[in-house]
Amino acid sequence: MKVIGLILAAFLVAIQAQLWFGKGGLARVVQLKSEVAAQQQANEAARARNSQISAELRDLREGLEMVEEKARLELGMVKPDEIFVTVRR
């Protein structure tokens, strides 16, 4: 009877060791949780960027105000009867 108890105890210790220190052990779970958190942050940043791009696309489709604003800010364009003045702060 003692032999069966010792064998069962040895199996229990082996199973617990595998659970704590094996491939799918506690360390791996902690690592995966940190990877999931990092990926969720990256996803939120991508969602914010996608939202911004969608808003710009919607503005471009709806009117020319956004096109004019982009031309002025990014390309430095002015209308024919305007005077360009640079103000430094």
Keywords:
3 helices; mainly alpha; rod-shaped; single chain; 89 residues
Fold blueprint:
Elements lengths: L1 H20 L4 H37 L2 H11 L14
Description:
The protein is mostly helical. The protein contains three helices and no strands. The N and C termini lie far apart (89 Å). The relative contact order is 0.04. The model has no long low-confidence stretch (mean pLDDT 86).
SS class: mainly alpha
The count of helical stretches stands at: 3
General shape: rod-shaped
Count the beta strands: 0
Uncertain regions spanning at least 5 consecutive residues: none
Succession of helices and strands: HHH
Overall residue-averaged pLDDT value: 86
What is the alpha-carbon Rg in Å?
31 Å
Largest sheet: none
Fraction of residues in H or I helices? over 70%
Portion in beta strands = under 5%
Cα distance, first to last residue? 89 Å
Short account of what is shown:
With 89 residues, the protein is mostly helical.
